[in-house]
Amino acid sequence: MMWPFDASTESLWLALYLVSFALHAVLVSYVAAGTVYALVAALRRSADPIAERTRDWLPFLLGAGITAGIGPLLFLQLLYQRRFYTANLLMGPRWGAVVPALILGFYALYLAKASEHRRRLALGAGAACFGFVAWSWTELHQVMLDDAGWRAMYAAGERFHLDAAVLPRLAIWAGAMLALFATVAAWPASAAERRRLAALALTGLIICGATSAIALAIRRDFDPAHGWTYLLGIAAIAAALGWGWTAHRPDGPGLSVTTAATTAALLAGAVVREAPRLALIEHGRATAVGSGGLPVFVVTLAVGAAAIAWVVRTVRGAAE
Amino acid sequence: MSPIDSPIAHYPVNDFGPLMKGLVIGGVGIVHVFLAQFAIGGGMLMWYFERLGQRGLPDARTFVDGYFKVLVLVSFVVGALTGVAMWFTTIQVGARTIGLMIDEFHWLWATEWVWFAVEITAGYAFYRAGRRLGGRARLRLLALYALASWMSLFWINGILAWQLTPGRWLDGGGMWAGFFNPSFLPSLLFRTAVSTTLGALAACIVINTMDLPRDRRAQLIRRASRFAAPIAVMPVLALWFAAVLPGDSRSWLLGGSMAMTMFVGVAAGASLLVGGYVIAGLIVQRLYINGATATLLLGLAFGATAAGEFVREGARKPYTVRGVLYSTSIRPDEVAALRRTGATAADPYPLRERYPGEQLARGARVERALCDACHTMRGANALVELTRTWADDQLRLNLAKLQRTKGFMPPFAGNAEDVEALVQLLRWERDDRPAGFAAPPASPETLAQIARWLDEAGTAAAGEPR
Fold first, then answer.
1. Inter-chain residue contact B3 with A150, CB threshold 8 Å
2. Which of A4, A114, A208, A295 is the most exposed place for a label (fewest CB within 10 A)?
3. Distance (Å, whole) CA B326 – CA B450
């Protein structure tokens, strides 16, 4: 089988983790980057149809993003249970603050949608909340890897993990979020709007590329991840070319090309992100490996996907 | 040794100050359960009202659209996020417990996740496009929403019920034997009845906010109150639930532990008040209910839910998973080994505080490992207050024979030196941490006596695992 997958149960969890994580990333990227985009538009007081549509969809997509996030959260607990729980406990209440931050962000998005008067304040609060959550997740990721530092962190009662890798990771995520937001937002957009979104996406891709290049130059730890890193690079370049094509001919096939390339880059990126900690997967937990219920999940997944497809079709039919 | 390599999963322990950890998870859990059950009952109720509207009941459709807005704004946001918070707080309180639950039931949890995704999609679709949809599509969408939210309950209920009554799973019956455990069905039906009641009470509040003449609101209220009728069977379901509980758990609810009995009383009393008003007042007498009274009844229902959840959590003691994992996150089969090695020999985490002397430091580590999950030193369920009046030997005896001291306590999972260190720590704390405190060295006779008491108590829990 293709690396990093094999015939083990852990590999199935890994595959489901990566796919559900990618889906979650699309939705939360739309929310985080979309909130900042709508905030900038509100501050500039310009009539911006992209911002208007974004504001309209933000609450639903945050709900969908959080729901989609439960999947990777579940599989993460199977793959790296003791690391994940330890990192949760070490960061303690400061980690738990992501929940009230998300609740606040959620209501801020509803307020931004409903009240023009409080829009800038609401979007600013939402952006701050989502920034805090992104930062917290990045820190948690780093704490999970740093088992050598756990004892000292606990003894000091330290709730923050100011690792040198946190900022570059956040910068790469910020760039990726811009590109993902632009890809989703471009489909219902007009020709002129697509040109603007192309510029936004290219900015995001440049941020990703430049930050990755600087980090690699400093750390000198390039990991080809069995070719996935090259695939990521090629897909990102293809996405950038697709955006260039879209900017040149907004109604042409450029957007389809860029969407396909961005999807490939997202999946490859998820594998590359995972590669350094694959060796840390906790194998051999007999209870988890031997647990039943997989057929029920597979059938429910098929039924659930069909039900969601029916809902989308029903609602689109009503819109038409 | 890295914490990851330890055979027993040792996790860093957080101190929540005067707040008992159970209060933290209880607080989040009660809000989540209340909102989730409201969402389930609300979904069923809206399907019912939509059907009434399509059969000619005036204002029903307006009510459905208004009610759904409340559901989305309250339940979809706070309800969904407190679900995530439940995971995070459970990790804080009992990482090993949630880890075991995930290991055993992850495919069912993933199944529940799919239903939750369907629920959220159907709900938001109705919220955004409901007004534009035809009657048939609206009805189907609401039916899907109601079904998905109830299916979510179906799966999570089995996992939670397994914690209290694992049933044949303990005999190696497998995951399904654990899921369809003795308390699965009474618990599922009970929660369904609670859901419809909460949905109906919330409906009465929403109806009172509608800009309609009183007689038209009364008509809607009469229909909504019928939906709360299942509250009438709740006493039977509660008795069924009590009947399948392990004998020791049942005895604590019925007088064996006064605190637990009082929680049962609060849950039963509040439910009786709500049920009496609904059945006698709203359904039989067809009384009108204003927004204030409906809010009061919903508040009582919240109180009943809170007390009921405390009862469910408390009834599991001394386990978090009956027969499998004690509230100390130690397995029954590990107790004997810890009696030999000491409770904290493999605990890799240092203390955050300095103590005057090695014995007090050891006591603090023992307290962190064996007591901290359910007790605080000076806040809620405070160790200092629980043991203040005990003489030293009484304290040694009661700790060594912990499961005999109180049937809902787990066996002491440490050796004689651990008991003595904990005794000295409690004395030091009781005396307000005197600066010059010098813990007397434990005499060999004292340690030998404690060891005899530990042996006499054995390593098993007081009650049978089932």
1. yes
2. A295
3. 22
A86: nearest CB among B11, B111, B350: B11
Question: What is the overall mean pLDDT for chain B?
Answer: 94
- Compute CA distances B9 → B3, B14, B95, B294, B323, whole Å: 8, 15, 9, 48, 18
Q: Which residues of A touch B125 (CB under 8 A)?
A: 311-312, 314-315
Helices (H), B130-245: 135-164, 175-179, 184-209, 214-226, 234-244
Please give the Cα distance from B97 to B349 (Å, whole number): 20
CB of A178 closer than 8 Å to CB of A168: no
User: For residue range B269-325, what is the model confidence (pLDDT) as tens digits?
Assistant: 999 999 999 999 999 999 999 999 999 999 999 999 999 999 998 999 999 999 999
**Encoded tokens for B396:** 């040694």
CB distance from B88 to chain A under 8 Å?
Answer: yes
Confidence of residue B5 (pLDDT cuts 50, 70, 90): low
The pLDDT of residue B6 is 66
The reply to whether B288 touches chain A by the CB within 8 Å rule is no
Q: Considering only alpha carbons, which residue of chain A is nearest residue B8?
A: A82
Is the Cβ pair A151, B349 closer than 8 Å? yes
A318 or A158: whose pLDDT is higher?
Answer: A158
Mind listing the domains of chain A with CATH numbers? Answer: 9-289 (1.20.1630)
Tell whether B286 is within 8 A of chain A (Cβ).
Answer: no
* Helical axes B80-129 vs B60-70, angle rounded to 10°: 140
Interface of B with A in 342-371 (CB under 8 A): 348-352
Q: Which residues of A touch B132 (CB under 8 A)?
A: 318-319
CA B232 to chain centre: 24
Of the candidates B200, B144, B202, B160, which has an alpha carbon nearest to the alpha carbon of residue B33? B160
- For the stretch B407-452, pLDDT in tens is 999 999 999 999 999 999 999 999 999 988 887 788 999 999 999 9
Question: What is the pLDDT at residue B73?
Answer: 82
Interatomic CA distance for residues A48 and A59, integer angstroms: 19
Q: Is the separation of the CB atoms in B145 and B44 below 8 Å?
A: no
CB B204 within 8 A of CB B224: yes
The ipTM (two decimal places) reads: 0.95
Dist CA B393 CA B419 (whole Å): 11
State the DSSP string of B301-316: HHHHHHHHHHHHHHTT
Q: Do A73 and B87 touch (CB under 8 A)?
A: yes
